[in-house]
Design goal:
98 residues, 70% helix
Length: 98
């Protein structure tokens, strides 16, 4: 049986353990968090300032449920949050560690 040298011990620290996320996974998680937070903040700003729902209300009323966009506030907000989370995740996955 071979004993571990100090260089072997150092190299073991660089490998991710099953509990620690890989750098790519960390980027994806950070992107998702950033997308969600940014969407929440901008939506909270937009609603009282412009007195209008996000553009997803128009999408929902035109392609899914019909009727007036103002009748679909909850689905529009949920869809808007999913959109922000998804785009944040996508952008996080496309960044590099450099």
């Amino acid at each position: 049986m071979r004993s571990l040298s100090s260089s072997d011990a150092d190299s073991d620290d660089s490998r991710p353990t099953p509990d620690s996320p890989t750098p790519r996974r960390r980027r994806i998680e950070e992107g998702a968090k950033g997308g969600l937070v940014a969407t929440l903040v901008l939506t909270a700003y937009r609603l009282p300032v412009s007195h209008a729902l996000p553009p997803t209300a128009e999408f929902w009323s035109q392609f899914v449920a019909g009727g007036d966009p103002d009748d679909h506030a909850l689905p529009a907000l949920v869809l808007h949050l999913v959109y922000g989370l998804s785009l944040g995740t996508l952008l996080g996955s496309r960044t590099s560690d450099e």
